Amino acid sequence: MTDPMPGLTGPRARHGSTLGQPLTRRDGVLKVTGAARYAADNHPPGMLYAVLAVSRVARGRVTFLDVEAARAVPGVVEVMTHANAPRLATDPDEKTNPFAFRLNVLQSDRVRFPNQPIAVVIAETLEAATEGAERLAPRFDEEPARAALDDGEVFTPAVVGAGSPADVAHGEVEAGLGAASHRVEATYDTPAQYHNTMETHAVVAAWDGNRLSLDLPSQALAMTQMRLGQLLGIMPGDIHIRSPFLGGGFGSKAGVSGPQLLGIMAARLLGRPVKLVLSREQAFGPVGHRAPTRQTLRLGADGEGRLTALHHHTRTATSSFDDFYEAASGASHSLYASPAIRTSHDAVRLDTGTPTFMRAPGEAPGSLALECAMDEMAEACGMDPLAFRLANYAEVEPMTGRPFSSKALRECYEQGAARFGWAGRPLAPRQMRDEAGLLVGWGMGTATFPALMFQGQARAVIRADGTGLMETGAHDMGQGAWTALAQVAADGLGLPIDAVEFRAGSSDLPDAGIAGGSAHMATAGMAVHEAAAAAIARLADLATGDERSPLFGAGNAGVVARDGRLVRRDDESRHESYADILARAGVAEIEGRGRAARDPAAGADYAMHAHGAVFAEVKVDPELGQIRATRLVGAFAVGRVINPRLVQSQLYGGMIWGLSFALHEKAVVDRRSGRVMNANLGEYHVPVNADVPPMEAILVEEHDPYVNALGIKGVGEIGITGSAGAIANAVRHATGTRVRSFPIGLADLLA
Amino acid sequence: MRYFQPATLDEALAIRRGNDVVPLAGATDVYPARAGRRAWGDPTHKDVLDLSRIEALRGIEDRGDHVRIGALATWTDLIRADLPPLFDGMKRAAREVGGVQVQNRGTVVGNACTASPAGDGIPNLLALDAAFEIEGPSPRLVPAEAFFTGYRATACGPHDIVAAIRIPKREGRGHFVKLGARRYLVISIAMVAAALETDAAGRIVSARIAVGACSAAAGRLPLLEAALPGAPLTDAPALVEPRHLAHLTPIDDIRASAGYRMAAALALVGDALADLSRPAARVA
Q1: Domains B3-168 and B174-277 share a fold
Q2: Please, which domain of life does this record's source organism belong to (chain A) (predicted)?
Q3: Cα of A253 to nearest chain B Cα, Å
Q4: Which residues have C-beta within 8 Å of that of residue A203, sequence separation ≥ 6?
């Protein structure tokens, strides 16, 4: 394997543990100098370029492709269509597991969504392939598109999200509503959103007999390897995927996408390496998105402002041919105390690509609607939004009665409110203006995300020279895995971080679990921690069992690993270096293997969630309705923080996505054709620096003995929750207008 | 797709006469327009006439009574040019066209020739009484008001090439305000360009005001222009009335509704005049 990070120069050596240190990114220099190699940067000898032709219709059949015209372009080598595409060992429509999404890879002439691939043109140059794709002049037998939430037949899916029941109830919701002094019923609409990773999906595929070598950005190396093995009819171990860096994943790179599989198929068809990269507009369809939701919340509260009932219902959409349901109502499961809670979902089928996990799936739209509804109820009760949330603070998980493994949300509210200056906020809206006459509003929202953990593995080695090696197939999507996991490795191995070689991002390393669900640090981090502990334990056995070692006989007292030495716990004058221990034992290196998984007993007994509180200030032009978020303060309790710099960066990123959800992001779908009308970053707005206000992310101290031995809860997604609601509530506070359709636009605020 | 890259204007005109080509200067409209068509299911592309090698089309020149902006002059060239206050609005528009990368490539003339209703340069060219130097079978000078003939339509014929824009040098100051769904990097929902001359007493001598993104082609506000002369500049914002904009025909699109556009345009015209009534330092 080639080193994915050649020439890596790490930060200064530090003494003592690196855990909790704000190290800068170890891959930062590679990124800013352009030396970091992303999938599409690879050009193996003899490589061909593949360009997709995609469908302009949402539903129907391909009736004609001018393959001859495309082939006539000089440089074009082959045109792959449903007529000649290789058949696969496993039908890509077969559901081998719930997360194996059905793929549209030219196995028939059927079109199921706009931008579905209908042909691949492969050529010696990118220009020739592009020209060939232009000349295909496809014709279609077109059927009407089902494009909006009102266009389909409503049904209740069996499960939503990652496998949760669609309808869950605790207590008597209708009775609770009936007995309430105040009732709020409101419906919130959120649009379809597309992941829009900076790096569009790409693959460079090279076959050698039945062995396959891939450069392919992946959030789930082992799962992707397994799925590709099934589809291609080869052993997963014969597939090598390199994915050292991802230009963002956000859930859309958790599995292999149809276009990437087409690139692999083209390479097999032609017996030469092939590169295929999606254009920006082609990424609006075949690589997943967040489905639209229409959420209806019904809340009841008593005279003291305590909830008597909470019903959160979500209508969402999936594709015509597969199943993924945005579990938005799940946000109401665990956040606020109420004697009666019901969360329900139903759905329609639309002619779109299949939606998938995206940036806090479920929680992001669900938290937005819930936090708005909580504010509407606070207003109905005449209470301050923070006081109302504190009055409904859940001391135990409300629907199950289980205790929380830890929950420092009260401290988040306190620290966030103090830093923001929440006290003194006028209760009534439209009370504040700045010196320029702009309306000013303050809003808040509670952040929450489950503290998940998957299964992962790692391998640690201590070498004869006293240095260490740690291997795990972890994924750096920009979040900082290269750095934070190396910190855990250095800490576990008792070595300065520069004395540990850290390998990740390749499928020939131990499976680190998927980088998703905000669980990668907990999962891969614990695997690394366990592997290091196993290696140190074997080293300690060598030393304490050898009468020539100063550590002989320390078995009961124990030793600690520190700065490349084992030190007797009860007598620090007795110690020995790793190199000396291995040299005397005549061992070239020792290895330790680690496995990580949630302790099932703790997982059953405790509710595990990260929490936070976000406070937002917005300013609104009273004549034009222009909205600017001007301040965001978040306080988050996320368990153990391995690297505060990277964690804050993750939280800022999440808060920016929350801003995006509230004010910017929206796929505008044409009702007639089903196509996305703004399939480009010029008109599908994601925030740029100029849109981002001054932000703070406060890390609230929290120790959790149950989530895992390191106490890590995960920070990847929680920042988006709470933030979108806080901004929406601030807009209401500024203007007096409650907008329930997102993103909030200028015109929504003018009467 | 064929790609022509001539070195002289004569060669370019010959290519234009013999082929159905789309002229390209900075490619900042041609490229996204192509991506947009492809997104809409049409991957085809017309043959391209790339003008970027024709040195004679570069630069911004002071020609005594007018400033001449060559067909290859970029927004960045405009921002960096030493120009009188009349061009302040044009420069503001230049800073709001996309990001710096787009400003470095995109051209003022190309923006005009694309003739998008949301083209940021166009209201300024109208307010500045610009004229278009058209080369072709019948070379001519066309005033801006006659150049923009409709939605993405201009007086530049299929065998013509716009070689430059001429802007007469006059007294007064220019200004430009743009409204989008966010602060920067956004396509206009509505925009206003103004060029005002005032006397020593601060009274308006002449006013030329144009609104963009609120009709198929940007247009001047003749009723308001007639109402302003003689009034103190500081009173001007209060003189703007809905009837001055009544001839505009905004549409609903994915960026805003027609009703919002009309209300916003009214507010923006007032804002532009209010900005102009403040000291120059405030609006530069």
Answers
A1: no
A2: Bacteria
A3: 22
A4: A39, A214, A215, A216, A259, A260, A263, A264, A274, A275, A276
